[in-house]
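Private note to self, pasted from the team thread so I don't lose it. Backbone tokens:
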């Protein structure tokens, strides 16, 4: 029997027998998945000190305890309701928000929730070997904190699927545990979540760049007219900040060490001295930024327009936007490739909503290089880290068919092939960052546009 002690919650789980039964059925599958796919080598023999949310108030949220990881208490929390909350955009602007799912938007809402939910276990799977070669106990604890919170975010989406989507929702909740990051037959839905996170620099980059996509996507789902989704995302966002902190400060430490070694040995080639050369760090930035940009979908998207018009997914900080929140008349500039050159077009603002969100994200991503460059400057070096052009190494959207260098030059396939190893991490680069005993898996090569999720 599920108790509030076992699954801390503020959704009165004990009052809803049907929901309880559904979760009781799902929970053992989740624990099995966690044992199989969660942190390897840290399941039963260690007491881990982690934050466990037991309520949404500041005290309950920052509650810490020692647990064996599979016994972590994954709770279900929705932020407190906002009195008389109204829909802030789209066709239903100004109407009261929904406490149930309107029949006509059931499929689209389910799709959004499943896509969000799919990323959470994926990241745990991607990071499952990192504990075995962590740089410090501090890093190990951060890793597990991130992992259990991603697990809780999965619980958050599974709660919505079970509570509001009936049998289809239950089936989707099971499928969330069946797909697997990088699996050739049943990959995770979004590309970046099938990439490997084989080393700690990748982990810091992932938490800096990919978790930041999480912040922005959750920020738009928080605007949703479907109030339970909005309240869930609001609470999830609180946990996201620490994940990005882990990334930002992790890269700070790597850059600092590289600078120290460059001074000590008077060379940029710090690899023989146990450091990661700056050009390799730059390649990691290039890779993780570009795969994270793909997570925003196409710059021109009818899906995004439909989500907005229907009130399912808003814009970042919708209430601060000084327009009509309908966008039927507005236009948005869009960078594209025309006649073999980079060019700027204009599209309807409704179609450009993924781009609108990505633009906010790109602005935010800039803060990392700024602070890492400060470290370089403080150590007296002229080299600088930077974000590559948005068209670089893209698999989704308007640049997917083209080759663009980090500097933003459109090039042909030959120049791309010739330059690729200077721009993206190579197997040789990874020998500096990944110990030899890391298990290798067959590489995932496809994009999951056709993933049978709906
Ligand atoms: N990979 O109109 P389009 C997080 C598909 S991260 C593969 O361009 P749309 C976290 C798309 O599904 C946040 N397929 O894009 C971070 C569509 O398929 P159909 C995750 C892709 O639909 C770290 C087709 O291409 N949350 O929380 O407007 C650790 C055309 O779609 C990709 C969300 O993403 C891709 N990258 O937008 C842990 C929020 N991109 O219709 C967690 C929910 C697109 O042809 N998701 N496709 O079958 C969404 O809002 C939207 O699904 C997307 C895509 C923004 C992802």
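Design output:
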């Amino acid at each position: 029997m599920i108790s509030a002690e076992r699954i801390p919650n503020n959704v009165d789980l004990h009052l809803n027998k049907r929901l309880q039964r559904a979760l009781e059925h799902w929970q053992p599958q989740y624990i099995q998945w966690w044992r199989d796919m969660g942190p390897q080598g840290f399941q039963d023999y260690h007491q881990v000190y982690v934050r466990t949310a037991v309520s949404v108030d500041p005290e309950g949220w920052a509650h810490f305890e020692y647990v064996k990881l599979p016994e972590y208490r994954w709770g279900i929390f929705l932020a407190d309701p906002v009195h008389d909350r109204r829909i802030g955009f789209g066709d239903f602007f100004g109407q009261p928000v929904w406490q149930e799912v309107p029949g006509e938007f059931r499929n689209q809402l389910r799709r959004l929730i499943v896509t969000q939910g799919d990323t959470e276990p994926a990241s745990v799977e991607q990071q499952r070997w990192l504990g075995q070669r962590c740089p410090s106990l501090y890093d190990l604890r951060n890793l597990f904190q991130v992992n259990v919170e991603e697990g809780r975010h999965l619980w958050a989406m599974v709660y919505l699927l079970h509570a509001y989507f009936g049998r289809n929702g239950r089936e989707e909740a099971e499928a969330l545990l069946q797909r697997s990051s990088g699996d050739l037959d049943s990959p995770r839905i979004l590309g970046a979540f099938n990439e490997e996170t084989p080393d700690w620099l990748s982990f810091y980059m992932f938490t800096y760049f990919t978790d930041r996509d999480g912040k922005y996507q959750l920020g738009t789902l928080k605007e949703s007219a479907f109030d339970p989704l909005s309240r869930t995302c609001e609470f999830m966002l609180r946990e996201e900040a620490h994940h990005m902190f882990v990334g930002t400060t992790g890269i700070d430490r790597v850059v600092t060490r590289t600078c120290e070694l460059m001074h000590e040995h008077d060379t940029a080639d710090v690899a023989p001295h146990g450091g990661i050369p700056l050009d390799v760090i730059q390649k990691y930035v290039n890779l993780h930024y570009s795969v994270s940009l793909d997570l925003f979908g196409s710059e021109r998207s009818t899906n995004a327009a439909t989500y907005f018009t229907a009130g399912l997914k808003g814009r970042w900080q919708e209430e601060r936007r000084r327009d009509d929140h309908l966008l039927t008349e507005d236009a948005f500039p869009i960078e594209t490739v025309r006649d073999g050159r980079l060019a700027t077009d204009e599209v309807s603002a409704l179609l450009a909503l993924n781009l609108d969100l990505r633009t906010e994200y790109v602005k935010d991503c800039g803060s990392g290089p700024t602070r890492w460059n400060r470290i370089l400057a403080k150590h007296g070096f002229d080299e600088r880290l930077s974000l590559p052009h948005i068209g670089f190494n893209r698999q989704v959207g308007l640049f997917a068919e083209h080759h663009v260098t980090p500097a933003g030059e459109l090039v042909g396939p030959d120049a791309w092939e010739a330059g690729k190893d200077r721009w993206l991490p190579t197997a040789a680069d990874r020998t500096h960052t990944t110990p030899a005993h890391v298990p290798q898996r067959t590489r995932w090569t496809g994009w999951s546009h056709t993933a049978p999720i709906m």
